[in-house]
Structures are given as C-alpha cells and as structure tokens.
Amino acid sequence: MKVLFLAHTEEGGGLGKAALEALGAAKGLGFELVVGLYGAEVQAGADAIAGCGAAKFLGVAGADFATARYGSDASACEAIAKAAGADLIVMPATARASRVAAGVALRLGAAVDTRLTGLEAAEGKVVATRWFYRQRMVGRIERDARPWLVTVDSGCFEAPSDMKGAASVEMLSPAVATRTVVTGVKSPAADAQTIRPEAKMLLVAGAGWGKSQAGGMKRLDEASQLILSLIGATKCSLGSSKSLVDQSGEGGALPFLTHMHQVGQTGSTPRHQKGLATCCHGEEPHVVGWRFITERRAINLDASCGWAQGKADVLYVADAFAVVKALVELLK
Amino acid sequence: MTDHTADKLPEGALPDGVERQRMDVDIACVGFGPAMGGFLHTLSKGLVAEDGAPVAESKAMPGMPPQVICYERADDIGFGVSGVVTKGRGIRASFPDLDLMQIPLATEVRHEEVVYLLDPVGASRRPLVMRLKDRFLRATGLAKNHAYTLPYIPNFLRKEPGYLLSLGQFNQWAGGQIMGQGSAQIWPGTPVAGPLMEGRSVVGVRLQDQGVDRQGRPEAGFMPGMDIGSRLTVVADGPVGAVGRALDEKLGLPVGNHAREWAVGMKMVVDLPEGCALKEGLVLHTLGYPEPEIFGFLYVYPGNIASLGIFVPSWYDSPVRTGYRYLQHWMQHPYLWKHLQGGRMRSWGAKSLQESGRRGEPHLVGDGFARIGEGSGTTNVLTGSGFDEAWTSGVLLGVSVLELMEQDKPFTRENLEATYVRRRRESWLEREARIAEKARDGFQVGVIQGLIGMALAGLSGGKAFWPGATRKPHERIPSLEEFFRGRIPAEEIAQIRRDCTQKGLPLHGALMDRLGWPSIQYDGQLLVSHQDALLLGGKVQAPGGYRDHVTFKSTNVCKACDEKVCIEACSGQAISTNPDGGAPLFDREKCVHCGACIWNCSKPSPQGGESANVDFQAGAGGLHSAEN
Amino acid sequence: MKGLQIVVLGSIVPDPLQTLEPIVGPTGPALKNEMMLPAVLDPWAGHALYEAANLAKQVEGKVYLVALGPKAKLQQVMMNVAQKVPFEINVLDGPAGGFTDAAETAKALAGAVEKLPGLDKGKLLIFGGWQSASRGTGAVLQMVGELLGVTDQFQGVDEIKMSDDGSFTVLERIEGGSYQLSSCQGAPAVLGWATGNLPEPPNNPQVGMANMRFIMPALQKAVAAPLKGEGLRFQSVEVPSQRRETRIVKDAPVDDIARELADWIRA
Domains plus CATH for chain B? Predict the structure, then answer.
C-alpha cells in the first residue's frame, strides 16, 4: 500500500498546521509514504518535512499555483497523484484543499471521503472515522476501491516534529486551464473576532444576552460591550447561537454578530481547547456547536440547562452579565 | 397612566409605495387538520373524472381546473397535536382499503381501561364525597397502586373496534394523499389573518403581513398579507383559529349556542422503557388525579411507544392551573409510573380543545363560507371523540360542494344550507352530538355532578342529564385568595405574589409547593424542565418577520389583574411575568399556539362580548414535532 | 449576461430540530423513524436557491432545482419551499440520507442536469450548498462540475456579483473569518454556497401557485434513482455518549466564579 500525503504550501512556501497534522495522519498508517506539495513555492515546505520518511517528494510550483483556485489546484493535485500512483491520498481539510479534493478524486477515478476525524490501519484494512448529520453521529467506514482520496480535519491528528532536512523534490509542470483569477483576500478587522482555529478558547454567546433581563429591560449595549471586552481580554474565538445571530447583525441586537459566528446544527462546529458558553439554553441539536470543545464551562441562570447538564464540565448558575464583568476586570 | 395597545398602522393602511396584492381562487381553505383532510380528499376525488380530466372549470382562472388552495398556519402539515383514539367510521368510509401499516404509529384498539386514580401524595383538592370514596377503596383493598380500575366501560365510551393514531403522522399521510391527487394545494407556513367580509358574506381571506416587527410595523422586506378572493371559504382553523373566531365575533352564534367550555390538552409521546408491560393497542383513560377535574389518557402505539397526557378544563377553577406541572405529577402516579419510569420523551405538545361540542356550534354556513371540524362544534363531548367527527364534517361539505359545482350553483347560504347543513343534520354526527349536548353540563356545578351527568346522558341516550348553567370562561375564575381560602392565608398569597413577580416567575410553582405537591426530581429523560420540554419535545421555534400574535387588549386591565391566569396556564412559558408590573411579556419563540391564553384570562374584554382581554391572532411557527 | 441557466442541486434533510438516531437497516445504516421525521430543504441548498432566484431576477435567467430524494417527502417539503422563489424542479426519486455515497449522488445529479431540456453549458451556473446537514461531505458539487466539464469552481460562497459582460466576482469563505475574492470570466461555473447574504424570502402565495404548475407534474414524472450503495461499507454508526459529570456551582459569589474562570482561562 502506498500513501500520498498531498498538501498545499502557505505563503512563504512552508506548511500550515492543518497540513502537518494531515501528514501525521498519513504517516501514522505505517505504509510507504510519498509527499506531494503544491503552491507558489514548495521547497521550504519539503525541507521542513524532509525527514518524514517519504520515499519520494513531488512538487508543483509557480505563479500559476500561488493562489487557491480550483482550475490550477486541481491540475496540480491530479498531476502529483498520477505521478505518485498511490493507493491512498491524504489531504488536509483546509478551505483550499477542500475546494478541489472531490473533483480531483473524480479525475483520478478515486473514491473520496472528506473531513475525517480518524484514520487507522489494522490488519491490512484502512478504517476512517467521520461524522454524519452535522456532527450528530459518528461512523467508521472502509472501502475496497483504490485509489481512495480522503481529507482529514484539523485538530484530530498529531503533527510529527523534528523532520527538518533537505528534500529533493521532483517537480512536475501540469497545464492550467482556468478562467478565474484570485484577486485578493478580505480579512476581518483586527478587532473583530470570528471563529479562528488558532484561538485557545471559544466563547459562545447565547440568546440570553439579547433577552429581557431581571428588571424587564433588554441590556443590549451592555451585553455587546461585555462580550467584546471578554474577547479583547482573552483573544478567544466568538461563536453564537442561531437565534441570537438571527436577531443580530447591523441594526440588530448585537451588531457585530453575523452568520459567520453561528455554531451548532446549522453553523460550524469549531475545535478549541476550551469553551465558555454564556446565556445558552438548549438541548440536542443545539449543543452540537461545542461538541469538539475539549474543556467546557457554562454560565447560565438555569441549573437544569441542557447546554450544561451532562455536557459541560462546570456549570456556574449565575448572572452572566455580572460574572463576565468581573471576569474582564480580572483578566485585564 | 395611558392605556395603549400595539402601535401599528390603522387597519388596511399601507406605507407609501406598497400595494397589497390580490389573487383570486375558487375555494380558499383555512387550516389543515382532519376536517380539512376529509374535505379536500372528498373534493379532490370528485373533481377529476375517470379519464383524469377535471369535471369543472375554474371561475377564478378560466381555462384551468378549479383552484382549491388550503393555507395552514404551522410550518408543516404534520405539526398538529393529538393522540387519537377513534372508531374511525368516517375514515373507513373514505378509505375502504385503509392499510394502517402505511401510517406510522397507527394501530388498532385492542384493550380499553378506565382507571380512577387516588391521590398518593395528599395534595389534591378533593371534595368530601371523593375522599370518602377513596377511603372506602383503600379500606376494602380494591385500590391497587393507589388506583381502581373500573370493572366495566359503558358502551358510549368504548372505541373498540377502532384505531389509535398520531394526529401529526395521520395529517402527513392524508396530506400526501391529497397533494398526490393533484386537485388541491396545501400551503403550510401561511397564517391567515382573518376573513374578508362584505356585510355578512365572506369573500375571501387576508393572509398575515410578513416582514414586520413584533408590533406589526413594516420592516425591510415588508410584504403585506395578500388578499385571497374566493367564491367559497372553507373555515377549518380549529377552536382557536383566527378566521373562525373572527366570524363568531362578527356574526355571533346561533341563539342559545355558546362556546364556553374549554380544556388544554398537554401531552407527550414517550419511548416506553424496555420490557414495559403495556401492550400495543391499549387505551387507558384516567380520572381523579392530580386534581379531580383533570382527566388523563395513555395510548400504546406500535414499537413500545406511548402517547399520553392530561386535560385541564376551564371548569377547573384554579387561577393557577398549569398543565405542565400537573402532567408531571400525573405521570408519576404509582399506577402509571411503574410503566413509565425509565422512559424517554420523544415529543411534547399542547392544544386547546373546544369542549362545548354541539352547544358551541357556530353559524355553519353563510354566503361564501362554510365551517367544518372542531371549530364548527363537531366534537362529541360525551364520547370524547373529535377526530372522526371532524373528518366526517369535511366529507359532508366535500360532497355538498361537488354537488353545487356540478349544478353550477353559487355558494350562497341557501345553497349551502340545502346541501351541507342538511347532510350534517341527517348524519350520525348530528344524532350523536344531540345525545351528548347536555352531557357535561353537570361539570359547571362540580366534578361529581359532572361525572354523574355524563353517565346519565350516556345511558339514557341524552334524555337525562345533570343541569348546570354556563358562564363565560373569564367569569368563572375566582381570585387566588378565594380559591385558596382555608388552605393558604391571604397574607401569604400576597407575599408569594410579591416574591414571584420580583423574580419574574409564575405563581403556580410556589403555590403548589406550599400545598404539599412534591417538587419534581428531573431525570433528564421524561421528567425535564418545562424549557427542555419545549426544546427536546416540542422543538418549538418561530420564524422572524411576523408580528406577535398574542397581545393584550388593554394593558391597564392587565396592570390591575392579580391572577394573571394567562401566565400560569401558558403551555410554553411564552407568556411571563413582567417584573415591572403591567401587561405580561410575550415571547413568540416559545409559543406552541395552543391558544390557552384565549380562555385563561380572568378579565373581560374592554370591548365586551364573550371574549377576555387577550388577543390571539394567527401566527407562524410553533411546534416542529410531527408525532404528537 | 442575460438568460443564465442556474441549476440548484439540493435536497431535503430532517428538520434540524429533530432528535436523530442511527439504526442498522437492510442496506446499511439509516435514521430511526426516517419517514416520520419532518423534513426541510437542506439549509445550505436553501441559501443557494434564494441566491439563485435573486441572481436570476437580475439577469433574466431561469432557476432549476434538481433534487434527489424520496418523492413523497420532497412533495411535502416543496409545499413550503415553492412559496419562496420561482423555480422549475426536476426530481430524482431516491435516497437523500446522510449515509449515501457522495460520488453516486453526484453521478445521478449530473445525469439529470445533462438531460434538462434546452441546457446550454455556456450559460450554466451550478449552485448548491457547500455542505449539507445530512452527509456533509462538501464533495458532490465538485464532482458534478467535473462530470459536466465545469472547472471554474468556488466553495463557501457568500456573494456573487455579475457584470453585464457575464463575468462575475465571488467571495469565498476561507479560514480565520476571511474571504477570498476571485473574478471569473463567466459561465459555466460551480458555486457551493455558504449562507449568502439574503434573508429567507417571505412566503408568496402567487409564487407558490406558479411553481406548483411545474412541481406536481415533475413529481409525477420523477425518475427512480436507487443508489446502489456499493463500495462504501460502514463498520459502525453511533451517537457518541456525550454525558459528562457536570459540577454545578450554585449560590457562589460572582467574584469567586469570575476568579475561578480567570484561573481556568489563564491555565
């Protein structure tokens, strides 16, 4: 069995965290390994993992492959995969790789499964783990078809370390046919927080922030200010529930919340080490949003709240307005 | 102090540049439930000839087949609430080859029991006669597990041979059949604001405005509710439907009729614990507990699933009559709990039932409209049967409408009287409703009298009954002090009221605790908080862009109100205490549209009439559970 | 560019509020009570459909919805969706569950798109959700594109801006809350939508009536598309045990709670 680890490089030619974790997944299978890299430059990335034990390094580089674009990325991946002749192709589930992975599989006549959270080989079989129905249930799957192309989720595999060296990369030059030009990247303002994979903590702001508080009044300005201060103090990611997001946005309850923040059944399910849920209430499927948060705490007025009971490690039954205010002071 | 109601545009006025659109159809229908199912199924079958060609032409859209459109308020046609046990006479007639296997959760009635539940906790408010009876049953050893199974079920209560159905699943199935027939369209998620009237004639319906804020003021994406012009409007929006109630208000009820008796039915569908001894097809009815006025039911579906719940009637005069807490106490009665413990709630819901039956019959027809189903007084209050009666009323209208269409006659009051009303009067529906008409009058006096009255009416074919004069629902409700006299001192009630108001809590929790009702130990499966029942079981939600459908006619009246029964009885905790005093708060996202607030208000409408101070309109959203 | 043909690929999923449990069916895993569960249009496909209708209005184009799912359920869901925006539907009567194979689904859908009467690939935009609430592979659209020879593809799209000459720009979601901005010379292209920026359109009875003239015949003409389910084998599917021992801190002073949290966050 031959495994191809196939990933794009980042600006500067190196490999990102997700790619390194995917390498860990590929390497962990214990089969013959081939590395394929594509991007503006690939040598730095190859050198960074020169000692990973790969039998061969393949690369596609150049200005045509600098940006994340379907036409060029698919050609690069196709060329590398064909040259490698691997049985199993492992790619990271980054935005860039996810854009092309399934299309590449089709070109190769390969089977495809995406966003795996587990990948292991036992008794000659490769078994993959992935989630279904928006992270509501988990399945273990296998296939006889080869080649088999998979993408693996970030945060699920250990990235190998100490692999630096000098890699000899066999460069390929696939033709590119595309009518698309990537013209830029729009990043959120530095102070605006979204769900960022590198953050340590996810703050989940629930619908309670937008509801009438004791005294009958909504305290939206205060809620906004408290949430933003806590984000400022902790540099955490900000997630929110559908119901709060729906009421928010420009001119809404909490103007800085958009659908980009939504976690849960119809939003994202981010992976963070810690999660703090505030003013959230609900049960399955509402709690799907923090399924992949390792340590979970919640502040809520209701001791039997479904977000917390049996789901969080600690539930503080308290007024989140008061607790967050004091917390921000302490963290300053 | 000014008295203000929702600040909105005057009736019919629209912002500059916005026009209300209009569309004409042949038959506009409101509300999809069993009655509408019966109507549309019958009509659809008759509108198409054997060769598939339509038998009539649309008058609204010449050249097309008749345009029959049904608007349903809920987000799906399967979100109705009711566990159904029925003799199924009407259904069998409509579907002679009915295969119950096609309908999930359907089965045949196999065994029936009526059980009298004694009070195992000593907190219920039992009249002396009942206490003596309880003592007798315990002393003689007739009561087991604090319950006594009646040795015999009178014929009028029997449903065997019959069906057990989930209303939600049946509606899904029936709706699928009708849409598959292709002659009628059913549009869920479309609340109807009210009828379009010219004098006493109905000329169509107006849909609710979309793209408005909670007060009904236009926002971005404003779309005024469309006017749907129709030659015939079929009203089947149930006892709390906006169109039916508007007609009652404008036209009044026939002399001598009134729709004053209500109940809220609150229920769950439960995965019974493994190895549960309850067998598929069991129909169990209970009386006596948690309060003597509260009746219960438990039906066992295929797959070890039960549909169970209670009815809290309007003649149970407690101003703190909460369905949810009582449901939890009822489930925990030892007789039931031995079967239910370890079970898991699958779904939950609540609905208002019109319990006046034939007595609550409105004007069944008028120029341009006809009424079917529960809102037309079909429920048989003696046999406790409403589903098949509703379906049958729809069938009778369907046949009549086909007859008028074939003869190319207009849908005038006279023509509808000569066809639909005549058929209804000649049907078993009417015959049995007449027997039942006075069966429950005794409950106006007391629970014992009510039970005796039912037995008298049932056994005498309606000739005998226990008399009792009715009052408007709001007139029945005593003050807290009055209701709890002799049990909780007035000063203590005042203190509880102050504490709860300050915390924004309803009163029933504290008052029931005070009376000795044990607190509920949540097990996270079957015994869960009311909020979790909404989320886990009801899956309640509300789309944006609609106005609040529950408002208070006079906020001053609310400010002066000490009972606020609307809060206590709200099935979804959607109406809550306003810590500032004044009118209660309403949270649309929790409303299950049971309509209990309509009749759980102790203050008369400032405009007079039968109604109270709560205004309840048609709104979108609510339950998202298709099993109830 | 006038007269674009916007084909939206999308189907139904269980109403997201429902409790879902897997069971082992005769052909592999399935959802318990699948036919009883209320269904909705997949939320991401919904966004794609509303964006498609919005774009079609600007360019005098036409929207097709190609749906692979159980006919009876599709019929029911369409009674809700059809009131939202104008479209023509093409139905493949087959499974829409999460345990079907993405590639098989893609092949069935691509076949149906090819067969759309009057299809002009020079004017074709394929829309769909970049994920789904069932299988959630985010793989079907790419494969349909490849099968139809469309290699300008975008995923996680929140916005498309069309120019008069038919070229367009696209905003795609990438990591860290950022957007990648691209421009494309024109159709054909594949766009996998994230949420887009449009609110759910109101229910419009006239739109519903107009759509229904096509929906009912399309449902009657639905072609059976039984997916074989070959190749993909499930060892297990389960709802993972989520139970944690929750420590409940009640009646503690706010400052103590804040201190405990601060220590935890800093650790």
Answer: 25-84+168-257+359-436 (3.50.50.60), 438-470 (no CATH), 475-616 (no CATH)
CB contact under 8 A, B589 and A284: no
Q: Which of residues 157-216 of C touch B (CB under 8 A)?
A: 199-206, 208-209, 212, 216
For chain C, strand residue ranges (E) read 5-9, 12-14, 22-25, 28-31, 39-41, 62-69, 88-93, 124-129, 153-162, 168-173, 179-184, 189-193, 223-224, 232-238, 247-249
Mean pLDDT of the A283-298 span:
77
Q: What is the CATH number of the domain that holds C93?
A: 3.40.50.620
Q: Which of B67, B175, B210 sits opposite C76 (nearest CB)?
A: B175
| DSSP 8-state assignment for residue B536 | I
> Is C153 in contact with A70 (Cβ distance < 8 A)?
yes
The residue of chain B with its CA nearest to that of C201 is B221
- Tell me the CATH number at A280: 3.40.50.1220
- Are A240 and A284 in a shared domain? yes
The answer on pLDDT for B2 being more than 50 is no
Residues 6+ apart with CB under 8 A from A38: A6, A7, A8, A9, A59, A60, A61, A65, A73, A76, A77, A80
CB pairs under 8 A between A and B: 35
Q: How confident is the model at residue A151 (pLDDT cuts 50, 70, 90)?
A: very high
Residue type, B323: G
Domain shared by A227 and A107, yes or no: no
Q: Which of A215, A282, A310 sits opposite B579 (nearest CB)?
A: A215
**Phi, psi for residue B205 in degrees, rounded to 5:** -135, 160
Which CATH number is A48's domain given? 3.40.50.620
**pLDDT score at B1:** 37
Q: What is the pLDDT of residues A217-239, one digit of tens each?
A: 678 888 989 998 998 888 888 88
Distance CA B456, CA B463 (A): 8
pLDDT for the residue numbered A279: 85
The nearest alpha carbon in chain B to A245 belongs to B544
CA gyration radius for chain C? 21
Nearest-5° Cα angle at C21, B269 to B169: 40
> In this structure, which amino acid lies at residue C249?
V
Residue A279 sits in which domain range? Answer: 201-331
Q: Verify whether the Cβ–Cβ distance A304 to B522 is below 8 Å.
A: yes
* Chain A interface includes C40 (CB < 8 A): no
Tell me which of B13-17, B256-260, C92-96 is least confident.
Answer: B13-17
What is the predicted pLDDT for the residue at B592? Answer: 96
Q: In the 8-state DSSP scheme, what is residue B375?
A: G
> How confident is the model at residue C242, as a pLDDT?
65
Mean pLDDT on B74-99? 93
**What is Dmax (Cα atoms) for chain A?**
70
ipTM value for the complex: 0.93
CA–CA distance, B431 with B3 (Å, rounded to integer) = 48
- Chain A segment 1-60 residues within 8 A of C by beta carbon are none
Tell whether A189 is covered by a domain.
no
Residues of B in contact with C36 (CB under 8 A): 104-105, 169, 626-627
Average pLDDT over residues B450-455: 92
- C260 within domain boundaries: no
**pLDDT for the residue numbered B4:** 38
Q: In total, how many domains does chain A have?
A: 2
In a domain, C137, yes or no: yes
State the average pLDDT over residues B288-313: 97
Q: Give the pLDDT confidence of A168-181 residue by residue, as tens digits.
A: 999 999 999 999 99
Read off the pLDDT of residues B194-223 as tens digits, 9 standing for 90 and up: 999 999 999 999 999 999 988 999 987 899
Residue C229 lies in a domain: no
Radius of gyration of chain B (CA): 24
